[in-house]
Structure formats: C-alpha cells, structure tokens
Specification:
The chain is of the alpha/beta class. It is built from eleven helices and 13 strands. The strands form three sheets. It has a seven-stranded mixed beta sheet, sandwiched between helices. Strands 9-10-13-12 form a four-stranded antiparallel beta sheet, covered by helices on one side. Strand 5, helix 6 and strand 6 form a beta-alpha-beta unit. Helix 1 runs antiparallel to helix 8, helix 3 crosses helix 7 and helix 9 runs parallel beside helix 11. The radius of gyration is 21 Å and the shape is globular. Bound molecules: pyridoxal-5'-phosphate. The site of pyridoxal-5'-phosphate has 13 residues, from helix 3. Pyridoxal-5'-phosphate (PLP) binds next to helix 3.
C-alpha cells in the first residue's frame, strides 16, 4: 500500500474474477457463452470504420439505449448502459450510496456486492440462505435498508418469484431494490415489468451471458427515468465516454437480433437439462438451476478433488473457498459436445456411483 491510498480503501477486498488462462482449456468457470454472438455483430466488427475510430463515441449511447428500449418496451429515458453490468452496478452505488448506508444481500451470492459494500464503506448485512440455498424473502421484506439480489442467484442458480420481489419493493418505497438479472434469460421470471409500477426498483442485465458478448463489456439497467438521469449525471461527471463505438454498435446489433438470441438460449437450456440428468446418474446432487450453469456436489468425492482432477484434464470450473459451499462446484454449460467431454471426464473421476471412497 502506498502512502497515498485513502484510509477508506485500506480494508477493501477486490473481487477475484474467474481465471482466464492462456492455452487450450475447456473454460467453464465464468459463465461465458460458448456459442458465437449474433452474426449481425460479426458484420459490425468486420465493417467497423477504421477512420471513424478517431472520433469519440456517443456519450449518451442513444443507439444502444433505443435498441434495448425497443426490445423491452421502454423509452430510452428508462435505460442506462455501462461497461458491463459490473460498471452499471458501480454507477448505481456511486450515485445512491454513501458511507454508513445500509444494504442487504445473501451470504451466498455474487461476490461483487460485498466488494462494492466494502469499497463504499456501507453497513452491509448478509442474510444466510436456507440449507437448501433458497433465499428467505421475509429477511429482505422486513429489513430496514436497501437490498441487492441476483435473480436467479449466482452461484446457486435458484430464482425467486416476481411476487416475492414485489413484496420487498412495495414494503418500503424509500428503499432502493436492485435486482441483478444477469441470468434471467435462461429461466426464472423477469421483474422488469414492475419498473412501470415502482420508482424504487432498478433492474440490471448484461450482454455477457445470453448474448455472448462478455468481451465487449455491455451491461444495462432499466428503472424509473429519474433514477436513470441521476446515474447519467454521475456518469458524465466520471467517465462520459464509458462505452466505445464498437460496444454501442455491436450491442445494438445483438439486441435487435432477437431470433438468434432466443435460439441460443433454447440451445443452452436443452444442453443444461440433459447435462443435469446425466450428472444425477453419476451420483451428483444437482441444484435445480435456472441458469447457464449448474451447481453440484458429490456425496463420495470432495469438490476440491474433482476440481483438481478436471484441471488435470484441462477443464476449468469454479470452486469456492467459502465454508458453506466448499464442497460444491459451479460448471458453466457450454455446447453439447463440450458438455459430453466434461461428462466423460467426470465419469472417469467419480467412477461408479456405488463406489464409496471419500477422496
Ligand atoms: C456475470 C455476472 C455479472 C457481470 O456482468 P458483466 O456485464 O460481465 O459485468 C453481474 N452479475 C452477476 C450475478 C453475474 O453473474
């Protein structure tokens, strides 16, 4: 730590992203899409104006906000876009949260919420999820501060209902409720329609998963237009050109290619459901996920052992050094062929499910 770092950040613990190794790996540790982005995006990248790159991008990101608005039935004024959902969440924190303010989220969830909470010095509360990893909604309904929830949750893959979200939002119009719908396209019910009814709800989504554009960094929020204009005000004071021209153009093209997007989602869901069945045959306990990943544990083998064995076979999945889920693995669902390879590897590792050597 240098002499200059603010005391405020002394205890900050940065988020640890999933490894991005070089070389040939089957990479199933960051829930990226293994299908290519829309062919319309390829056209943008191929034809991107070399000369045009000399000019700044549109700081209002009109084209992208209008495209997203058209898909979800909202005006551009209700859409904020950022350099990934992570930046959208960061602008939200910067705009509406100050040191000492109260925010709640589950003990098992996307670790970035804890990172933001410590960065901004928030008084955060992590409600333990139930033993089956479901969220106890009343914890949040009765809490007297703001709330951030991933729905479906990461890494468990479990979703709560829109009715439950509405109960949290409705209980106290003075608290902000942020719902992170990074995986909503794969299952669960989106609470975006509630935005028309409540002024204290902010829904965040991303192009990184179902639209296969993690590398382009495109995330967005849908909320009441005052909330969006506040966030834009902060953005203009911090980094007006947060989205590159390539991201704006590629994002607009991907958003408008609804047919391709739906086709990819269906393909992943089908592969996921087959993969789940086969995992159960190998003796795994599989959480009933609604996302593009599975969350699994095996009664006879430690997760860390399976993780290491998969790694030896150049298959990278996610293992968490967190007490309650230390015996679980999160595996992204890739293409059908890739999941077949993973299945064979797992079969090789855990062998006959009747064998009960706890390794
Ligand atoms: C992947 C993920 C994000 C990050 O999305 P980016 O747009 O890539 O920043 C946000 N929230 C959750 C819960 C995620 O799993």
């Amino acid at each position: 730590m240098s002499y200059f770092l603010l005391d405020d950040y002394a205890n900050m613990e940065p988020y640890l992203p999933g490894e991005q190794p070089a070389g040939k790996w089957i990479k199933l540790n960051a829930n990226e899409s293994m299908l290519p982005p829309s062919p319309a995006v390829k056209k943008i990248f191929d034809e991107a104006e070399y000369d045009g790159m000399g000019f700044y991008s549109d700081p209002h990101c009109h084209k992208l906000r209008i495209a997203i608005g058209d898909v979800y039935g909202f005006d551009e004024k209700n859409i904020f876009v950022g350099n990934g959902a992570d930046e959208v969440l960061a602008f939200c924190m910067m705009s509406f949260f100050r040191k000492g303010m109260k925010i709640a989220f589950p003990d098992i969830t996307y670790d970035f919420y804890r990172t933001y909470a410590t960065t901004y010095g928030l008084d955060f509360k992590q409600f333990p999820v139930n033993d089956d990893f479901t969220i106890n909604v009343d914890d949040y309904v009765n809490y007297d501060g703001d709330v951030v929830l991933a729905n479906p949750n990461n890494p468990t893959g479990l979703a709560i209902s829109v009715d439950d979200i509405e109960r949290i939002v409705k209980k106290n119009p003075e608290r902000m409720v942020i719902i992170d719908e990074a995986y909503i396209d794969y299952g669960g019910e989106s609470c975006v329609p509630l935005v028309r009814k409540y002024n204290n709800l902010l829904v965040v989504q991303t192009f990184s998963k179902s639209r296969a554009l993690a590398g382009a960094r495109i995330g967005f929020a849908i909320a009441n237009e005052d909330i969006i204009s506040d966030m834009n005000k902060i953005k203009f004071a911090f980094n007006p050109f947060n989205m590159s021209t390539l991201a704006i153009d590629a994002g607009s093209a991907a958003a408008r290619d609804v047919d391709y997007w739906k086709k990819c989602i269906n393909e992943v869901r089908r592969t996921r459901d087959d993969f789940k069945k086969d995992l159960r045959k190998l003796g795994f306990k599989v959480i009933d996920t609604e996302t593009n990943f599975v969350f699994i544990t095996h009664p006879n083998y430690r997760a860390e052992y399976i993780f290491a064995e998969l790694r030896k076979r150049h298959i990278l999945v996610r293992h968490y050094n967190q007490e309650r889920i230390v015996n679980y693995l999160r595996i992204t669902v890739g293409s059908f062929d890739v999941m077949l390879k993973v299945l064979y590897a797992l079969k090789d590792i855990v062998g006959d499910p009747d064998e009960s050597t706890y390794k």
